[in-house]
Amino acid sequence: MSDSPLDPTEAFAQLGRIKLSETNLDGVLAQIARLAKHTIPGAEEVSVTLLRGPEAQTAAFTGQVALNLDELQYQRGHGPCLAAAQARDTVSVPDMSTESRWPDWADRARTEGVSSSLSIGLPVQETVVGALNIYGTKPEAFDEDSITLAQTFAGYAAVALANAHLYDSTATLAQQMETAMRSRAVIEQAKGIIMGERRCTSEEAFAILVKVSQDSNRKLRDVAAALVDRTAQPPRT
Questions:
Q1: What CATH number labels 180-232?
Q2: Choosing a second label site near 224 at 20 to 30 A (CA), which of 51, 122, 170, 183?
């Protein structure tokens, strides 16, 4: 690593200080990868894998090598980061030259300058799991202390990810609810206009809106909004 290692206590504190109102899930993932690279001894490059069902993707990475080695695993359907994510466990490859579980992938890693790796499962939420992937340029780059530190880091990272995912989901739901409420409000306005013009009931006014929507192949909200806008325009002189 070119920079001085970051004190683990400070790294954990930074993970805890992430302001979800000022970033998004991608920002949290990027910060996790960056902090891991600068905190875990032996880490040369770091990535974060997210696994939704059978679909895997590298959601954050600190260098092209990490991305290349992750994507090779996705293409082949096996490898340490996938195994760690699926089992929510720690998978270590101490020496690529003697790796027997994924020999083809290990050979490619050696050509990329990577001699060892460490992947730690990250539970994000019920339908999404992941892995923190750490790549080293030397064999046996991660001793027992490094592995313990990486596991502790992954625990803090998992909490930050779960919080970010919940915040993102909640914000999306709130936006959907706001949109639905606005749609309902404009439809109610349009119904009121029709009731006033045609002296009909609320149900009859709504049926009229639905028919116009179907006949014109437009969304009900758009039909209602057009009627409200037209009614709100001042009469032509």
A1: 1.10.10.10
A2: 170
CATH class of 8-171: alpha beta
Q: Which residue, among 118, 110, 121, has the nearest Cα to 65 in the 3D structure?
A: 110
Would the pLDDT of 92 be above 90? yes
Residue 108, Cα to own-chain centre: how many angstroms? Answer: 28
Mean pLDDT of 53-72: 94
Q: Is the dihedral of CA 137, 138, 140, 144 positive or negative?
A: negative
Q: Are 181 and 42 in contact (CB under 8 A)?
A: no
| Dist. CA 182–CA 67, nearest whole Å | 43
On the question of pLDDT at 50 being above 70, the answer is yes
153 class by beta-carbon count within 10 Å (0-12 exposed, 13-18 middle, 19+ buried): buried
pLDDT tens profile 105-132 = 999 999 999 999 999 998 776 677 899 9
User: Is residue 91 classed exposed, middle or buried when 0-12, 13-18 and 19+ CB atoms within 10 A define those classes?
Assistant: buried
pLDDT value of residue 59: 92
